[in-house]
Each structure stands twice: as C-alpha cells, then as structure tokens.
C-alpha cells in the first residue's frame, strides 16, 4: 500500500468527519453538495485503491458509474425503476436527464456500504458465487438503509430531485427503495464477479481498513442526533445503526480474538521451551 495513497485517504477521512459534524451544528465552514461529494468520492477511491489495488478500484468505479447512470436515466425517463421523479437544476450539469454528480454520489456511498457488509460477513468466502451473492445482497440492504434516512431531506425538503406523485414514506414512493436494492445489488454482484479474476493484495492494517465503517457509523450518529424529520431519528437507529454496530463489533472482536490467539501461541511456545530446558 502506497504511503502517499494512505496519507491522502486519511486527509479525506478527516475532512469527511469534519463535514459530518459541521452539518449537525452551526458551522463556520461547510462545503456545498459538489465539494462534499467530491471529497467523499476521493476518500472512497483512495481507500479502495489502498486496500484493493488500482485495478480492482478502476473496475469497481467503472461498474458503479455505468450501472447507476443507466438505472437513473432509465428511471427518470420511464418511472419504472424508482418511481416517477425528475432532477432539479440544483445538482449542476446533466448528462441526459441525470446530473453528472449523481453517479459519483452513488459510488461514495456504495463503497463504504460494501465495507460494512464485508465486515459483518468476514468469515464468508467472497470469491465463491454464493459468497458474492450474499455479500451483494447484504451490501445492497446496508446501502438502501442509508437512503431510508437520507432521501426525504434531500428530495422533499432540499428539492434536489422531485417525486412527481409524492409517496407514502415522507413524500418518497416505496418503489424507490426497491430500485435502490436492485441497482446496488447489480453493482455489487458484477464487481464481485469481475474481481474473481483479479488477485487482491490487501496489506492494510485493520484500523485503516475500518475507516469506511467509521464514516458510515458517524453518518448514523449524525442522523440520530439531529434530523429535519424527527421520526427519521428512530429509523436511523435501526436501519443504519444495526449494520454499523454489527460491523464495528466484528472488527473489534476480531482484533481481540487475534490478540488472544497470539498470546496463547506465545504461552504455548514458552511452555514448550521450558519443557525442553527441563529435559
């Protein structure tokens, strides 16, 4: 893992942590959507590059960009994927009917959500087809849980996109979440399939590898601590809070077990040495 890559990743991680906190309080400095998305995307790209390597990262980013843009464009044109909606002009330049920023926004959330799911399923064989499928399904649920908390404020209040017929969930149609599950599952499954042909050389420390999980957990705390829709604070606890908690527990317990095993091995080695000396 390149030291420069790791340093950039930590810098972007620190920036994201600040911006999450700044959004929750009266900030003296806060970036608009474009700046936030770009920094978050750079964090995800640099972290994935450090952990999985540049080739795997390029595959992940390309698949995510193509699939999410295609699903969004089809969704806006037909209303069949997410429900009837359209984007306002608040998110900048559009390619077709979809702002260029949107595929980037998908990737910034898709990558951390996969890391969270992978931590929960750490004993699963990620190279087998069943393992790829299970990881893709859980990752899609972790990602969609994020949108359960995010979408109402981004659409109903901020007006970044408009649900033309409204919806039963804080103005959002239920079909939207089925569309999120389908879209993200396709990305995760295709990436898992393509990654089988590419060897991953993960040399990151456990703490560094867990940075996306910490980002996801911090977003959860931010949504629980303060939310434009107070009922969504409860939703955040059980939708995002549960996978965040389980992934952090797995990471911490895995470290503790490894330390215990190392200690046990050292004790065994010491006992063997003593027995050898006595003999």
Structural commentary:
Strand 2 and strand 3 form a beta hairpin. Helix content is 73%, strand content 4%. It has one domain. The chain has 279 residues and is mainly α. It is globular. The protein has a two-stranded antiparallel ribbon.
Task: Annotate the secondary structure layout.
Blueprint: H1 3-24, H2 33-52, H3 54-78, E1 85-87, E2 94-95, E3 98-99, H4 101-120, H5 129-157, E4 161-163, H6 175-195, H7 206-209, H8 211-225, H9 231-239, H10 241-278
Helix pairs in contact: 1-2, 1-8, 2-3, 2-4, 3-4, 3-6, 4-5, 4-8, 4-10, 5-6, 5-9, 8-9, 8-10
Instruction: Supply the helix-strand structural class.
Output: mainly alpha
Order of the strands making up the biggest sheet = 1-4
How many structural domains? 1
Average pLDDT across residues? 86
Strand tally is: 4
Indicate the percent of residues in helices: over 70%
What's the alpha carbon Rg, rounded to whole Å?
Answer: 21 Å
Number of helices: 10
From the N-terminal CA to the C-terminal CA, the straight-line distance is 46 Å
Proportion of beta-strand residues = under 5%
Order of SSEs: HHHEEEHHEHHHHH
Q: Quick one: biggest sheet?
A: 2 strands, antiparallel
Note the overall shape: globular
Stretches where pLDDT is under 50 for at least 5 consecutive residues are 256-279
């Amino acid at each position: 893992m390149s030291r420069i890559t790791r340093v950039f990743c930590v810098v972007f991680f620190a920036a994201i942590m600040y911006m999450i906190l700044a959004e929750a309080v009266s900030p003296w400095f806060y970036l608009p959507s474009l700046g936030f998305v770009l920094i978050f995307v750079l964090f995800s790209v640099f972290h994935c590059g450090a952990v999985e390597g540049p080739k795997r990262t390029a595959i992940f980013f390309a698949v995510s960009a193509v699939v999410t843009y295609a699903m969004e464009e089809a969704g806006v044109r037909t209303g069949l994927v997410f429900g009837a909606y359209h984007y306002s002009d608040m998110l900048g330049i559009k390619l077709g009917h979809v702002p260029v920023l949107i595929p980037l926004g998908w990737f910034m959330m898709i990558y951390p959500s996969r890391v969270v799911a992978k931590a929960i399923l750490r004993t699963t064989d990620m190279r087998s087809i069943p393992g790829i499928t299970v990881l893709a399904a859980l990752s899609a649920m972790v990602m969609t849980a994020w949108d359960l908390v995010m979408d109402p404020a981004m659409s109903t209040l901020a007006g970044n996109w408009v649900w033309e017929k409204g919806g039963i969930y804080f103005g959002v149609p239920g079909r939207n979440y089925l569309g999120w599950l389908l879209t993200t599952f396709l990305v995760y499954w295709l990436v898992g399939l393509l990654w089988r042909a590419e060897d991953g050389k993960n040399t990151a420390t456990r703490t560094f590898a867990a940075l996306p999980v910490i980002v996801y957990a911090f977003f959860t705390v931010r949504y629980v601590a303060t939310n434009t829709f107070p009922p969504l604070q409860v939703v955040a606890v059980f939708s995002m809070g549960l996978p965040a908690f389980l992934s952090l527990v797995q990471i911490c317990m895995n470290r503790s077990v490894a330390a215990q095993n190392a200690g046990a091995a050292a004790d065994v080695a010491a006992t063997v040495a003593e027995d050898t000396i006595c003999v």
